[in-house]
Amino acid sequence: MELRTASSPKDVKHYTTDRLREEFLIQNLFVAGEIKTVYSHIDRIITGAAVPVKPLVLTAGDEIRAEYFLQRRELGVINIGGKGTIMVDGTTYELEYKDGMYIGMGAKDITFASVDEANPAKFYFNSAPAHKTYPTVLIKPEDCVKVELGSMEEANHRVITKYILPGQVESCQLVMGMTSLKPGSVWNTMPCHTHDRRMEVYLYFELPEDAVIFHYMGEPTETRHIVMRNEEAVISPSWSIHSASATRAYTFIWGMVGENQDFDDMDAVAMKDIR
Questions:
Q1: Where along the chain is Zn(2+) bound (predicted)?
Q2: Is the pLDDT of residue 113 over 90?
Q3: Is residue 275 one of the residues assigned to a domain?
């Protein structure tokens, strides 16, 4: 498990490109036959991925000082690869492309597997500290709350699919979902915002290998950018904007943890104020 410490906005404004990438960019998550994890001190979120060629068991490791991974945590998972299965304490769940799961605190035995090893599942996950056990749920995107926003004129016509949130799939603090841009649209979360009460991690995917995405971060008047590519993730502190434009349409998974689960609790940044 890779460990990342928190960063002050006063320091970040002086970072070089390499330092920004070192602190906030998560690369090489999807490795065949492995589970990769990154632990951030920002709200203690764990971002990870499992690509099972053979079945892979999720273990706690030494870093979280637990008997098993979800002893004091909850987990949200979305599959962005081939058909796969997740076995939770003896019960097996099948996940097609873009199916998700919420796995509650206390689940001890978690195994990721692929139905076709030649086309393995790619299980992307976020995990947050938990204080209560909520039911484990298989999540189908067609059953989720969907919101259509933006327009082609603004190059941000998109559909937001909410997987884990109060009133739909309950959790202690984790909120998770997916945003898909329509063909011809390239902007997300612009006009931008911050939310002091929770942080966020974005995973960008469905980009061709030669495409790039510019993720914008930083304080609204001290913006920076990180150039990203397909299936890379980025950590966004609560004080930072989180927006992007790309060379073509794309999809991203957002995961939020922190004090507040209210999706609409955000501090908007006027276009005239961003710089």
A1: 193, 195, 200, 242
A2: yes
A3: no
Q: What is the DSSP string of 34-100?
A: -EEEEEESSTT-EEEEE--SS-EE---TTTTT-SSTTSSEEEEEEE-SS-EEEEETTEEEEE-TT-E
| CATH for 183 | 2.60.120.10
Q: Per the annotation, where are the binding residues for Zn(2+)?
A: 193, 195, 200, 242
**Summary mean pLDDT of the chain:** 95
Among 239, 208, 204, residue whose Cα is nearest residue 224: 239
Q: Which two tokens stand for residue 26?
A: 């998560």
Maximum distance among all Cα pairs of the chain, rounded to whole angstroms: 55
Structural domain count of the chain: 1
Q: What distance in Å separates the CA atoms of residue 10 and residue 233, rounded to the nearest whole number?
A: 23
Q: Which residues are annotated as a binding site?
A: 193, 195, 200, 242
pLDDT digits over 207-217, tens only?
A: 999 999 999 99
Residue 263 has pLDDT above 80, yes or no: no
